[in-house]
Write a structure and sequence with these properties.
The chain is an all-alpha fold. It folds into 2 domains: about 230 residues, no CATH class; about 80 residues, no CATH class. It is built from 13 helices and no strands. Helix 2 runs parallel beside helix 12. Pfam families: Pex16.
Length: about 325
């Protein structure tokens, strides 16, 4: 400790600069943003701030409920349109299957009477028409077909047998439905659909019970935690269950989907930042630790500003919702 104090005395200018930087960080507090002319960048935070200023702390939950309901409906629509594939980052990232190694399946590179493109290209880009690479490959494929029709000799077409009609095979993609998933994957498919639906509806359920019982009630906190646990449990069962004789009943996850499941579990840490757990346990622990560090130069000031940032962010539902 004496060596640290000596270093502080010898570097007063540097310490003063750090303290000024720490004071400047307080402008990042949500309270500062709410009074700023720029306002929050996120639309959800803007809705929350405006609703709180105009209608108060209690009635702002009506607007947050409408926001979460809109998000839930949109994500359910995305879940259906994607063929009931796991939503990555709330649907912001397209869920693209991992391309298999073509060296392991050389027979997939070219099949008689089929598409000459590698199978992994078909799986990746045909199923995701919004992908730029998929659009480029589709355009190249159409260009090759048109060129073949233009340069096909006329005499060769005349020598073909009459009545024989040549046409380019068309790739028809059938989007999975709930019934097809249940029939093909059985219990695993049903558990997967249940887990994803619960995860999508969890924020809406949480806000609904906050609106009914209040933010300081344990009921919304416990119900939301229970929904998260059930969602994660049934999703794990869906990916690990091997019931049935058909191997297709087991749901295989891609690398991106495994990362998504890990990301969802990391979001559980936000429960210690939500009331009433925060005001009962987390806040007291942060304040006690801050008092211990307060006498230490620089460190005490930085810890104080960090605690202020945490307290400010905790007051906004948007920052702690995990939705």
């Amino acid at each position: 400790m004496e060596a640290y104090k000596n270093w502080v005395r010898q570097n007063k200018d540097y310490v003063h600069s750090l303290e000024s930087l720490a004071n400047g960080l307080t402008w990042l507090l949500p309270e500062r943003f709410s009074a700023s002319e720029i306002g929050p960048e996120a639309a959800e935070t803007l809705v929350e701030v405006v609703a709180q200023q105009l209608y108060g702390d209690d009635k702002k939950w009506n607007f947050i409920l409408i926001t979460e309901a809109s998000k839930a409906l949109l994500r359910l629509a995305l879940f259906r349109d994607s063929g009931y594939k796991m939503l990555l980052h709330g649907g912001e990232t397209p869920n693209i299957d991992d391309p298999p190694n073509p060296q392991n399946n050389p027979g997939d590179l070219a099949k008689p009477g089929g598409d000459l493109r590698p199978a992994y290209l078909n799986n990746q880009y045909v199923q995701n028409p919004w992908n730029r690479e998929g659009k480029a490959l589709a355009a190249l494929n159409r260009f090759g077909e048109n060129a073949r029709m233009v340069y096909d000799p006329t005499w060769l077409r005349r020598t073909q047998q009459p009545g024989v009609i040549t046409s380019t095979p068309t790739v028809v993609i059938e989007r999975p439905t709930v019934s097809s998933i249940l029939s093909e994957k059985g219990l695993c498919g049903g558990l997967f659909l249940m887990g994803e639906t619960l995860f999508i509806l969890r924020p809406l359920i949480y806000v609904w019970f906050i609106r009914k019982y209040g933010i300081r009630s344990w009921k919304p906190w416990l119900i939301s935690l229970a929904v998260d646990l059930v969602s994660s449990s049934v999703s794990s069962l869906a990916t690990k269950s091997k019931e049935g004789t058909n191997e297709q009943k087991e749901t295989n996850l891609s690398v991106a989907e495994k990362d998504e499941l890990r990301r969802r579990k990391v979001l559980w840490a936000l429960y210690i930042m939500r009331d009433p757990f925060f005001c009962t346990y987390t806040r007291r622990r942060l304040e006690s630790n801050q008092k211990v560090l307060e006498p230490i130069p620089v460190v005490g000031l930085l810890s104080e500003k960090l605690v202020d940032l945490i307290f400010g962010a905790q007051t906004r539902y948007t920052y702690m919702s995990g939705s």
